[in-house]
Write a structure and sequence with these properties.
about 280 residues, alpha/beta, Rossmann fold, 2 domains, 6-stranded mixed β-sheet, 4-stranded antiparallel β-sheet, 10 strands, about 35% helix, about 20% strand, binds adenosine-5'-diphosphate, binds magnesium ion
């Protein structure tokens, strides 16, 4: 089997959410954060969840990761109900979770170590994935010696080394500057073209969702429900130039209208001209 074939997996990673509701808080403070969400994501598909802040995006992702149990409905990956966290479902957050005292290679090979892989094998696995994210030359460095974008690349490698059938990403590039963020989006698409794992990517950034996704699931304000699903028509591989296409502008406008309706802002104060 070639390295490329080993990295590709298109057969697994189907998400099926059926009438999922998720309650948070205790007793009198309990409330529904996610309400009646039904969603199917096919193996190898790239889906973005777009919604206003606080609408339950992270909660839904947390349930898919196995950290939160839905109060109603069914959540399954490849027909197996989710019963807890599993390395097959990797999650990447806005801030990295790397061990500061371990080298980059040790951080990436930690997952395989926990799964019982021998030292030489996990080193090979880590080096292969570090190559995939373009960090081969940094494997002996420590997290603090890398830039924010590079740390997020290691974080991605830390998850990908487990060959997850599902990659869950919760606003992973939100803390990065605009240029690094764009570079990371391109890198992620490039990696996804090669590994074809299913990606569910949460963002509140319309441009990011339109650039990355096959399909965008727009959520309502709290409690989060699915408002609309939008098929993104741009061909792949995508280049950042697509932002200049009229269709991009049209879809962006549409998403903006949907989000605005969910997030009515308070009227702006009337400005009084100076000196009057
Ligand atoms: P999003 O990721 O879309 O910004 P979250 O899923 O983080 O939204 O949160 C949904 C809602 O639940 C928010 O209003 C948030 O304040 C609230 N919330 C999140 N976690 C908890 C918790 N552990 N206990 C109580 N409320 C929470
Ligand atoms: Mg969130």
């Amino acid at each position: 089997m070639s390295g490329r074939e080993r990295l590709m997996r298109t057969d697994a990673g189907r998400i099926a959410a059926e009438h999922v509701s998720i309650e948070l808080g205790q007793g009198a403070q309990a409330f529904e954060a996610v309400q009646d969400v039904s969603l199917t994501v096919e193996p190898g598909e790239f889906v973005c969840i777009l919604g206003p802040s606080g609408c339950g995006k992270s909660t839904l992702l947390g349930a898919l990761a196995g950290h939160i149990t839905p109060s109603k409905g069914g959540l399954a990956v490849d027909d197996t109900p989710i019963a807890g966290p599993h390395p097959d479902r990797g999650i990447v957050f806005q801030h990295h979770t790397l061990f500061p005292w371990k080298s980059i290679r040790e951080n990436v090979s930690f997952g395989p170590k926990m799964l019982g892989f021998k030292k030489a094998e996990r080193r090979r696995m880590a080096d292969e994935i570090l190559d995939l994210v373009g960090l081969s030359d940094f494997s002996d460095r420590y997290p603090r010696q890398l830039s924010g974008g590079m740390q997020q690349r290691v974080e991605l490698a830390r998850v990908l080394v487990n060959r997850p059938r599902l990659l869950l990403m919760d606003e992973p590039f939100s803390a990065l500057d605009a240029l690094t963020r764009m570079r990371m989006q391109e890198l992620l698409l490039d990696i996804w073209e090669r590994i074809r794992t299913t990606i569910l990517f949460v963002t509140h950034d319309i441009d990011e969702a339109l650039f990355l996704a096959d399909r965008i699931v727009v959520m309502t304000a709290r409690p989060g429900r699915i408002l609309e699903e939008i098929v993104v028509p741009f061909s792949r591989p995508r280049a950042t130039e697509i932002v200049a296409l009229p269709e991009f502008g049209k879809l962006k406008r549409h998403c903006l209208d949907l989000l605005r309706a969910e997030h009515p802002s308070a009227p702006l104060p009337r400005l009084t001209p100076l000196g009057l």
